[in-house]
Design brief:
alpha/beta; about 45% helix
């Protein structure tokens, strides 16, 4: 059994996927790289096959009809033989020295019979064209270099919540919680990092800058124009998150508070873009989203709404919308969703 499976969902990724693959190959036989070609029309399949032939004990190429990012993540998970599972987008990469440090710790823990449910490391926003970087770390919230539980977790700073980029899940945990991401839907990484949390008991945080998140392509899903264009997919993800966990029944209050705050961020993101689009239809969708949460769990809705973000996102007057839009630039800097 491999120590770590790294799944790389690829759609027309020929121009940049090699960097992602090469950055993981440094892990040698401890890693398994599953390249999922999601119905690409360029040379993605040929490149994946090339690496599979060159590294037959490490790389596995899987071809499928186009199903979107979530479908590719699902396929990677179904084919994974590693004890731990990491998703690396094809335009991103891992820092090689950090990866070796992570693998060393995972190997030591496994040798001692300690299998943590979630391993966390830092990620870095790489604005390559601007030659800028921003590191997201968890030094104020998480104990370092030790196994811990939710009881040991401190306060997360705004904009420093755990995303898909920062987490490595135990593979069997993802299967046990029946994680299944929707097809043909952007923004499913939020489901990936959110749904399994209530199954997580033990964690380990290593203060290394492992994941490098490339920012700068015009066709990226997180640009403002694409977020507005694909708002219905964002809303679908938002509702799946609401349905995926009975948050108010979670006994550990720290875990419960974290999941409430994270859901509040996603509700904010959805609301902001609906307000920015500004049509009557979009504002109705915003109202329907909050109604959906209230009907699903009125107590959870109150908790999410009680924060300043939840309160402002429900403003209905033009003056209120102006306040939201004015605060949008601040929110974008905090949460990096633009």
């Amino acid at each position: 059994m491999k120590l770590l499976t790294a799944a790389i969902p690829c759609y027309n990724s020929a121009a940049y996927m090699r960097k992602a693959i090469e950055s993981i190959l440094v892990g040698g036989e401890d890693v398994e790289i599953i390249i999922v070609n999601d119905g690409s029309k360029d040379e993605t399949a040929e490149i994946a096959s090339e690496y599979e032939k060159r590294y037959p004990t490490i790389v596995k190429a899987v071809n499928q009809e186009n199903g979107g990012h979530g479908s590719a993540v699902n396929t990677g998970l179904k084919n994974a033989t590693g004890m731990y599972y990491k998703v690396v987008d094809s335009d991103d990469w891992l820092e090689e020295e950090a990866l070796l440090k992570v693998l060393k710790v995972l190997k030591e823990m496994v040798a001692e019979g300690r299998y943590v449910d979630m391993f966390i490391a830092n990620y870095v926003y790489e604005k390559v064209h601007e030659n800028k970087q921003k590191v997201i770390d968890y030094t104020t919230a998480l104990p370092q270099h030790k196994v811990f539980t939710w009881d040991d977790v401190g306060q997360f700073q705004q904009g420093k919540y755990m995303l898909m980029h920062s987490v490595i899940y135990r593979t069997e945990l993802l299967r046990e919680c029946k994680l299944e991401l929707p097809k043909h839907t952007f923004y499913v990484d939020n489901i990936f990092v959110y749904q399994p949390l209530r199954y997580v008991n033990t964690m380990y945080y290593m203060n290394v800058d492992l994941y490098r998140y490339f920012i700068g392509r015009d066709d990226q899903s997180v640009t403002e124009a694409n977020m507005i264009k694909r708002i219905d997919q964002q809303l679908r993800v938002n509702k799946i998150m609401i349905d995926s966990a009975d948050v108010m029944s979670i006994e550990n209050k720290k875990l419960q508070r974290y999941m409430i705050k994270f859901l509040g961020i996603i509700m904010t993101v959805s609301s902001v873009y609906l307000i920015k689009e500004g049509s009557e239809e979009s504002l109705k969708k915003r109202d329907d989203l909050w109604k959906y949460l209230e009907e699903k769990d009125s107590e959870l809705c109150k908790k999410v709404s009680s924060g300043i973000l939840g309160t402002t996102m429900k403003f209905k007057t033009k003056a209120g919308h102006s306040i939201v839009k004015m605060g949008y630039s601040i929110s974008k800097k905090i949460f990096k969703f633009g």
